[in-house]
Amino acid sequence: xxxxxxxxxxxxxxxxxxxxxxxxxxxQTIQTMYYTVLLYLSAFVTLMTPGTIIWRLFGNRKxxxxxxxxxxxxxxxxxxxxxxxxxxxxxxxxxxxxFLPTFLLDNDSNWKQxxxxxxxxxxLINERIFQIPFNFQLLDKQxxxxxxxxxxxxxxxxxxxxxxxPTENEFNQIYPGLLDINKIIxxxxxxxxxxxxxxxxxxxxxxxxxxxxxxxxxxxxxxxxMTEIHQxxxxxxxxxxxxxxxxTDLVCHMLLLYSEHSEDFQYNFDxxxxxxxRLYPLTDLWLRQPYENQRGWITSLVQLNRNGWSQPDxxxxxxxxxxxxxxxxxxxxxxxxxxxxxxxxxxxxxxxxTIVNQERFWIQPAANFQHERTFPYGCQVWIGHGEKPKNxxxxxxxxxxxxxxxxxxxxxxxxxxxNELN
Length: 422
Hints:
By secondary structure, the chain is α+β, with helices and mostly antiparallel strands. The protein has 13 helices and seven strands. A hairpin with a 4-residue loop joins strand 1 and strand 2. The chain starts with a helix and ends with a helix.
């Protein structure tokens, strides 16, 4: 009897502890399944990108949310504290084939060589930006200006790489490939045009083989030691595509915000630029596959850049004057920090200021246009020079419903292609 009285409480305590642990595991499993299903279902039925959905669902939550196959990182502090790793922050997508972008390469000899080559070209282009004259005027228009700006920056990116204006034939071989890449990224289509991409590839290879004295890598031995696919990818993807796509997006975001916050861009451009990137980061998601004993994870750039701010969905450039604030997470982090930040900023600033500094320039978004991180409807605005028409606030762009249906289908196909939520 004494033995029972002595050992029974110990066994009951151990039994109670095991039960409690088992119950907690069950709750955790149910919670994981709930969050995973909620995220997938929301991504399937809504028109929002996965990154925006994550922000809407999890808001200012801190730390990690456990999903079935990976963790969701909710804030920049948690992200920065993760073990250092050089693995890519993205996965290959058909938007980029047949090219191999540096940011998708694993940490191997090819990645290191491509980074060295990029650094060489990046430094030279940042010098050329201030040497090559940029002459462009955005003409009065009522409609989508996205492709007007994209074509303009595509030509300028060629000038930066080859230090001359493209011939008509060269541009006709290169631009359709750039356009095809961007249309997949913008959810205008879901499959690449292989023939157009091949023409793009072949034209870049021909220009590389010519090795003109003003070619960006004419004096770069490391560049010519790389294999053909890495040479072509370095020029076509790391520079021409990156400059054309990313800078076009950033310029369009700034123009849309300029319509309401022109003084912010005139008197403190850097703050306005940071606020633009905080609200509309150029990338939707970062994701990393499992490595060593670390679980794979995914994070939303929209959530990272709005989490921890007061009035997080509102444009307020003054917030960057605060002595302490969350970091801007738009250019990568850790070993995978984007080396093109200065290049993208310089090009975007030059193009943006060239447009808005035209005499009596004004811009007004369409009444039914929603400013989002991506541009699935293009950039639907009314721009002009001189006095604004009285009905400028009532203009609407057409075929929005058809664009929404196309966007929904292409968005889901892109998610499957990139394994964004797997």
